[in-house]
Amino acid sequence: xxxxxxxxxxxxxxxxxxxxxxxxxxxxxxxxxxxxxxxxxxxxxxxxxxxxxxxxxxxxxxxxxxxxxxxxxxxxxxxxxxxxxxxxxxxxxxxxxxxxxxxxxxxxxxxxxxxxxxxxxxxxxxxxxxxxxxxxxxxxxxxxxxxxxxxxxxxxxxxxxxxxxxxxxxxxxxxxxxxxxxxxxxxxxxxxxxxxxxxxxxxxxxxxxxxxxxxxxxxxxxxxxxxxxxxxxxxxxxxxxxxxxxxxxxxxxxxxxxxxx
Length: 261
Known about the structure:
Blueprint: H1 3-22, E1 23-26, E2 30-36, E3 39-40, E4 48-51, E5 58-64, E6 68-78, E7 84-95, H2 98-103, H3 108-124, H4 129-134, H5 136-151, E8 156-167, H6 170-212, H7 214-230, H8 242-257
Antiparallel strand pairs: 1-4, 2-3, 2-5, 6-7, 7-8
Helix pairs in contact: 3-5, 6-7
């Protein structure tokens, strides 16, 4: 073998090995941020196969673009009305700018986790307990806007933040139970009073109708006797008009006043 042929084969072998070392691949959900001699390239690489300069000339950092579920552990917070509560939440975020996620912050995942914890305590401290329990959707939106505004310079988009559980002290739970019971009793009394008021109005209208038609009173007497007879009671109370009793009393009084013969 001639020296020229051996040198050519050596060059081809080195070129082939260099070519293999230059091949990189990232998945569909990944992007590769490339640093060339320490300088950031303007565009990330991928997905699929791409070539880089080997032997330390190019350094790549893979960034996952999928949505990440961030579990925020239980935080002991004090509401605006000085009630201590334990709150945990969950946040969903993803990288929308791989270049800033690498250059602007060191470990964007941990930074997002820390800012989420701090923002959760801050937002809970700005609302009262009743607002936290009854207006949780509004609290979630405020929390999402605050965290997203903090992480936006890092190329991270926080899409959803949800408060999972609110743990109350036992004393507060008992107080809220008593309050709910008192509220139900108040509603029951109001409903009962409204029923009595409506019944009184109906009786008033019935009295006016009967007063216009005296015969209606006699018909009510007969209807009452019919209803009592259906029940098979041994005692029947027959209502007698007051006018009849008055006339009977006057007649008895006149008989007593007559002189004996």
